[in-house]
Every structure is written in C-alpha cells, then in structure tokens.
Amino acid sequence: MFHIAELRGREPFDPNKAPDGPFVVFEDGRNGAALLFDEPEKIIRADTAAEVPQAFARMEAATRRGLFLAGYAGYELGYALEAKFAGGPVPQARTPLLLFGAFRAPRQYEWRNAASLATETAPVEIALTPAWSLAEYTERFDACREFIYAGDVYQINLTFPMHGRYEGEATALYRALRKRQPVAYGGVVALGEEKIVSLSPEVFFDACEGVIRARPMKGTARRGFLPTEDMARAALLTQDEKSRAENLMIVDLLRNDLSRLSEVGSVRVTDLFTVETYPTLHQMTSGIEAKLRDGVTLADLFAGLFPCGSVTGAPKIRAMEIIRDLECAPRGVYCGSLGLIAPDGAIRFNVAIRTLTLFPDGELVCNVGSAVVADSRAREEYEECLIKAKFLTGAKTSA
C-alpha cells in the first residue's frame, strides 16, 4: 500500500532544497518510503464541531476527483464526533480539528536536503519544562485511581504538555530526531501556521481493498545493555501481568470499535502480546483485522474509531470525559492522527504520539502521557512520561 512506484506521477523532489509552501511529508519506516505532497489544490479544515461534516464531505469529493488527501485530525475531533458529547462544548485546541491538503500524486522524498544538513552534525537537545510538577501530576493521578476504584473505568491515559523553544525548519528537526529514534509512521505537516512533527511508532489503522487493520501498542520495557540482558527484558515484558492487562483492554476496545464498521463475524485478533523492538525500548503490540461493510465513508470510519483507544483508556467514552475534566489543556494534534487517503480507497493513519507542535513564535509543545490502571504508582508513571520525551531532550528537562 502506498508504494512509491505506484504513486509517483511527478518528477522527484530536488534534494538540494526544502519544501516550499504548504506540504506534507509522510514516512513509512517499515520500507523506508517517504512521500512528499506539495502544491495542494485545496486545503480543507474544520475548526469547530459544526464545520466537521462539511469538511468530511469535501474530503470525500476530493478523493472522487482522483486527489490524494494528507494531513491530520486533532484529538478533540473525537468530542465532535461522538453522540454522547453532542450539543456540549468541544475543548478548543490551538490547532484545527481537521486539517488536510488535497494533492495530485506525491513525489519521492529524500531527507538529505539543504535544510536538514545543517543539523546533521549537531544533535538536537531541546530543554523542556513540564506543565505539571510531580505533586500536580499526583493530584490528577489520584483522581484517576478513584474513578478506577469506583468502577467508572479500567484504565485512563493521563497526559500533559511540556514546553520548549525551536526556531528552525520543521523537516530539519524531523531529520535530526529520526536519526536518534527510527520512525515507523511519521512525518511533517505544514499546511497552516503551526507545523507538526510526528515520530510515531504506532499505526492507528490502515485499510486497503475492504480490509481494515489496527495494531495497538501497550506495554513498554527498556532495552538492555548486553544481548542477554536485552533478551531477558523482552521475555519479561511478554509475561508482565500489568502490561498484558493494559494491552488486552485496548485490544478488546478496538475489537468493539471495528465491529461497528465491519461485516458480522469478520473481526479477528491476528496475534496477541507480540514484542516489537526499537532502539531504546521493547514495545508490546497486538494485531486486529476485519472486513469493512460496503458503503463505509470517511466520516463513518472516524466516527467509529476516533480517537484510538490506546490514548484514551477503557471504556473509551467515560475515559474521554475524565480526560477532558482532569487535563490542563486540550491535546491538539497529540493523540490525534496523521495520515494519507488515496483515491483508490487505501488509507493509513498513525497514532500521533511522539508528536511535536511548532508555533510561528518559536514555541514548541511536546506532550507525554501514560496509562493509569489500578496498580499504577504516581511517581513511576510521572517518570515514565518524562522518559518518553528523551527522544527530543536527550536528558534536558527542568521540572
């Protein structure tokens, strides 16, 4: 899906310059393919819940015209789509709920360009300041535990922003960071004033020829220094009861979400508790797939699935209510999704974790979070959140 040989209908991108004007670069790290979408025929956005239905209609119309769509959906789109929240306020982020460009065929993109070469010899280490101290985090953490003990939810993904500064070019930052942390499904979205840099290891869903697949990630272990230690940590992760419970909760949640869009009896779990290894950590994943019903639209897909249950908690709707009340700011693109939609119906979206928002004044926002369950501990979860920002900071964090 989205093979360059099939999609490229224009001259390759000139590697000696940075993209000019509105653009999206999306990379599939599994096969090393990066695609550049530039010179959009139109930009489609929705800033309020009332604008969302028309935005989806315009997106559908663009694909019928043979155009590709590339962009993002912000986390708060979930509040605009879910009937439970109908008529209520949607948390207002500083970024749109939906922002997509409609493009002709993309071009192959090579990261070795003039803008990124400047950072090639200088490692990126951006100091970040957490929005919450440990004490402030613990207060919200304790509230989450009370909801869990009361039986409201089984798991809540509690997140907060970290703030820093970056004055450079977005693709240069992406290139520097991807050298430190290889990317599974990431890229850069530069369709508005803000720039989004995503280095996500997690696919939200992809759909091709009527089959939809999801691969949630829950459960993390650090890499070991020696091969024997590394293998032991991976093996322990597969047996860790807490990680398995967190993973299984999200698998069940996504099975339920997919069942609302799929043919009866077609939802199946392809594998459980599979450990995938990355440069700095081992990650537990599971696979789910289903056969989509005929006539499912983009709006249906997002209404049925968005946001991904791995970034909310379970049950999803109650977790989203608690998140809205406890977190200190809307998440924006973080925990939303970046992705592509091809004219032939092929779709791929990531889960926008390890995702940065760059604002025109140089402000950088990097959100972090972790799953809170009954036996979680506040200090451990807070430290896990800070560790998740080390792909950007190196070690520079001021509490």
TrEMBL record:
Listed Pfam families: Chorismate_bind (PF00425)
One of the GO biological process terms: folic acid-containing compound biosynthetic process
NCBIfam families hit by this protein: pabB (TIGR00553), PRK07508.1 (NF005698)
GO molecular function: 4-amino-4-deoxychorismate synthase activity
InterPro entries xref list: ADC_synth_comp_1, ADC_synthase, Anth_synth_I-like, Chorismate_C
Transmembrane segments: none
Domain of life according to the entry: Bacteria
Protein name (Swiss-Prot/TrEMBL): Aminodeoxychorismate synthase, component I
Domain Chorismate-utilising enzyme C-terminal: 135-388
